[in-house]
Amino acid sequence: MIGERNKSSEMMITVFSVLSVLVVWQIITFALQISPLILPSPAKVWQSFLEVLTTGYGANQYSLLTHLISSMNRLLLAFLLVVISAIPLGLICACFPKVYAIFNPFIEFYRPVPPLAYYTILVLWLGIGESSKITMLYLAGFAPVYLACISGVKKIKREQILAAKMLGANNKQLFINVILPASLPEIFTGLRTAIGFEYTTLVAAEMVAAQSGIGWLVLDASNWLKSGIVFFGVILMGLIGIFLNYLLLVLEKKLVHWQGK
Questions:
Q1: In whole angstroms, what separates CA 116 from the centre of its chain?
Q2: Backbone angles phi, psi at 62, to 5 degrees
Q3: Is the N or the C terminus of the chain less surrounded, counting Cβ atoms within 10 Å?
Q4: Smallest Cα–Cα separation from 239: which of 24, 145, 247?
Q5: Could you read off the pLDDT of 73-131 as tens digits, one per residue?
Q6: Four-residue CA torsion sign, 18, 22, 27, 28
Q7: How far apart are CA 192 and CA 190, in angstroms?
Q8: What is the mean pLDDT of residues 152-173?
Q9: Which range of residues forms the domain containing residue 230?
Q10: β-strand partners of 57
């Protein structure tokens, strides 16, 4: 039944669920004597975490913090570029059909193409440095935000627009006080989707000529059959993804405080 949420109860259930999975995981690996190469135990994964934390990883023995900073720099820079370009363009295209007709075909063309398919082109154009990596992450996150802006504007009721005009609102006031606030819920949905797409593309972005980063760490460890580090890296990426999504949810709650009321 639908009722009021009990956050403390939900948190307890979540913690119990996670602990149960860890216990079952440990029991399975111990009872069935599964090779650590196939499925390392939680204890082995924890040991790998401590190893990377204390001694670093890679040819240069970069610390875990260095790997995290490298990945987050790429991810957040690409995400910032998405925010400052996709939101204005999406809102403009939604408000002006002729501008929409110019840009939309190109965005719809590249949107379904897997990032790895055009990564080779980006490397040819931009080289194997940071530029090609950040551009690929940017392209992965651009389309979801652009489409969310289009969807947000289309969902605005015509009555709201007419009422604002009847009250004497000019185009600037109409955009600031009606269109943008009404589109924000959809925009934040697009932002959370975008950072998820960028995150899934991060490993591919760090495949070429990278020497640090969580994605690179997972890829390199898999090449050397270091399953404990692979599992630890994947779990860490998942936890960071949850944290980033939580930050966006908190920001959305602050900026879209009227939603659901």
A1: 17
A2: -65, 145
A3: N
A4: 247
A5: 999 999 999 999 999 999 999 999 999 999 999 999 999 998 888 888 998 999 888 99
A6: positive
A7: 5
A8: 86
A9: 69-246
A10: 62
3-state DSSP assignment of residue 62: strand
Residue with tokens 């939680």: 42
pLDDT band at 136 (very low <50, low <70, confident <90, very high): very high
Classify residue 25: in a domain, yes or no: no
Measured in whole angstroms, how far is the alpha carbon of residue 43 from the centre of its chain? 29
Amino acid at 51: E
Structural domain total, the chain: 1
Per-residue pLDDT for 219 more than 90? no
Residues 6+ apart with CB under 8 A from 249: 192
Non-local (6+) Cβ contacts of 255 within 8 A are 184, 188
Q: Under 8 Å CB-to-CB from 176, ≥6 apart: which residues? A: none
3-state DSSP helix/strand/coil % of the chain, to nearest 5: 80, 0, 20
pTM of the model: 0.87
CATH number at residue 240: 1.10.3720.10
Residue 235 inside a domain? The answer is yes
Residue 1 domain flag: no
